[in-house]
């Protein structure tokens, strides 16, 4: 038998015929016409070289071969159904590592509640946090499969990337309590003290400097750091200033915040994954938690 020529629909019809031992009832069960069901029975007889259903007194009965086919036929059809539409694995039974690309902001305020929620709902899911090195790197990692989920700015994600807006963020000026710039804070006081900036690439010039230059102004960058992690501690122990995302402030101690004295563009954070992972139960569960925490 050449499997490439086998119509799997025939097996579905045969299963109903063997269950019902009656063409009309099998047709009704499958929502087929009686003639179509009879034609399928004829094709099954040719396929198996057996009558399969024989006429008796006012009824039809299964041949010995048909009887022997019932169990394996149901097993085959069940296997095909499971292959095409596998049953969902309960979350608490999933064992899977999930790679998440994100910066220390927003990791600062999502990792603890994320782990708490996973411990209760899916303790076998183990997040692996990967360093964020810009939107382009995050998108490339999603496309080539080296990360599973990314929290990032995504100006124009690729067609194969599914993204969800998490939040729109803005910057505030952060400094220690009692900082000399805090009294009657304004543009002049902001520019009078050195600034900390964060740059994963070690750059000391940012769009903020370009905006200042448009007004004929400049600032002194006193320290460049690769991430936000050390910024609050350094601010608390010095007269340095820093622009921080507003949602960082509740997680700092000994700092105060002021609105930026110049108009600065904020940023939008998105949660993204490759569309091929849309049916990944573990990924979708973690994504739902992250969205609930950040939206």
Key attributes of the depicted protein:
295 residues, five-stranded mixed β-sheet, D-Maltodextrin-Binding Protein, domain 2, DNA-binding, rod-shaped, 3 domains, alpha/beta, 12 strands, Arc Repressor Mutant, subunit A
Quick overview:
The chain is of the alpha/beta class and 295 residues long.
Tell me which oligomeric state these chains represent. single chain
Integer-rounded radius of gyration? 32 Å
The 3D shape can be described as rod-shaped
CATH superfamily of the largest domain: Periplasmic binding protein-like II
Task: Give helix % range.
Answer: 40-55%
Biggest sheet descriptor: 5 strands, mixed
Uncertain ranges: none
CATH top level of the largest domain is: Alpha Beta
In DSSP terms (H or I, runs of 4 or more residues), the helix count works out at 10
Organism: Cedecea neteri
GO molecular function: DNA binding; DNA-binding transcription factor activity
Protein name: LysR family transcriptional regulator
Family: Belongs to the LysR transcriptional regulatory family.
Structural summary, described in words:
- It is a single chain.
- The chain has helices at about 10-20, 25-30, 35-50, 65-85, 105-120, 135-145, 185-190, 205-215, 230-235, 280-295, and strands spanning about 55, 60, 95-100, 125-130, 150, 160-170, 170-175, 195-200, 220-225, 240-245, 255-260, 265-275.
- The strands form 3 sheets. Strands 4-3-5-12-6 form a 5-stranded mixed beta sheet, with helices on both faces. A 5-stranded mixed beta sheet has the order 9-8-10-7-11. Strands 1-2 form a two-stranded antiparallel sheet.
- Helix 1 (about 10-20) packs across helix 2 (about 25-30).
- The mean pLDDT is about 90.
- The chain is rod-shaped and about 105 Å long.
- By secondary structure, it is of the alpha/beta class.
- It has 3 domains: about 5-85, Winged helix-like DNA-binding domain superfamily/Winged helix DNA-binding domain (Arc Repressor Mutant, subunit A, Orthogonal Bundle), CATH 1.10.10; about 100-165 and about 270-295, D-Maltodextrin-Binding Protein, domain 2 (3-Layer(aba) Sandwich); about 170-265, Periplasmic binding protein-like II (D-Maltodextrin-Binding Protein, domain 2).
- It is built from 10 helices and 12 strands.
């Amino acid at each position: 038998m050449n499997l490439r020529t086998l119509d799997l629909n025939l097996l579905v019809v045969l299963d109903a015929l063997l269950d019902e031992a009656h063409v009309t009832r099998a047709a009704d069960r499958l929502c087929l016409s009686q003639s179509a069901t009879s034609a399928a029975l004829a094709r099954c007889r040719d396929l198996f070289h057996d009558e399969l259903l024989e006429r008796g007194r006012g009824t039809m009965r299964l041949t010995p071969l048909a009887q022997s086919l019932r169990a394996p036929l149901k097993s085959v059809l069940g296997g095909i159904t499971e292959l095409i539409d596998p049953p969902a694995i309960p979350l608490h039974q999933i064992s899977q590592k999930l790679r998440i690309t994100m910066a220390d902001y927003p990791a600062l305020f999502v990792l603890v509640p994320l782990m708490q929620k996973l411990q209760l709902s899916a303790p076998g899911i183990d997040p692996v946090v990967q360093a964020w090195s810009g939107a382009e790197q995050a998108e490339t990692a999603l496309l080539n499969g080296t990360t599973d989920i990314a929290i990032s700015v995504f100006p124009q994600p690729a067609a194969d990337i599914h993204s969800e807006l998490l939040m729109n963020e803005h910057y505030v000026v952060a400094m220690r309590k009692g900082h000399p710039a805090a009294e009657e804070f304004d543009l002049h006081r902001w520019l009078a003290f050195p600034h900390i900036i964060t740059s994963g690439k070690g750059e000391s010039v940012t769009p903020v400097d370009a905006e200042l230059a448009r007004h004929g102004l400049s600032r002194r960058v006193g320290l460049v750091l690769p991430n936000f992690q050390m910024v609050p501690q350094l601010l608390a122990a010095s007269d340095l200033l820093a622009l921080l995302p507003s949602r960082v402030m509740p997680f700092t101690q000994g700092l105060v915040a002021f609105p930026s004295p110049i108009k600065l563009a904020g940023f939008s954070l998105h949660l993204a994954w490759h569309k091929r992972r849309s049916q990944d139960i573990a990924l979708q569960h973690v994504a739902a938690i992250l969205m609930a925490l950040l939206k």
